[in-house]
Design brief:
0% strand; 65% helix; 5 helices; 2 domains; elongated
């Protein structure tokens, strides 16, 4: 079916995408604006589009952090179990319980430390 001039197919359907009616504002220094512009240009986007993408990605990151933390916990368990096994030592149920408790207590801290290794160094503000 042909749509009248100037009317999109979205306007005729009952399933319209949610409109973007809200906005957020913040202030930046000149150097921060330059850095944001450079990052947006490197991504081939406008600063507004790039900023929106970054903000939404960061808002959704909590779930990614949870998965990363559990991945690190699995790694910690494997490393702590494989070391004694590689040295020919048995792993007792008590050893496993101790390792599990240690991993449960330390996994978030270790995951944060590992994530810091992948973040670019940021200059300190003066």
């Amino acid at each position: 079916m042909k749509t009248p001039v100037g009317i999109s197919s979205h306007a005729q359907s009952d399933q319209r995408p949610e409109s973007r009616s809200q906005s957020l504002a913040t202030r930046f220094t000149k150097s921060e604006v330059t850095a944001l512009g450079n990052a947006a240009a490197a991504a081939g986007k406008t600063v507004r589009a790039w900023s929106r993408d970054v903000l939404l990605r960061e808002a959704k990151r909590a779930q990614d952090d949870m998965l990363f933390t559990e991945l690190i916990a699995t790694r910690m368990i494997l490393l702590n179990l494989l070391k004694p096994l590689a040295m020919g030592q048995p792993v007792t149920p008590e050893d496993f319980a101790r390792i599990s408790a240690t991993v449960r207590n330390d996994k978030r801290k270790v995951a944060q430390e590992i994530q810091q290794q992948y973040l670019p160094a940021t200059p300190k503000e003066s």
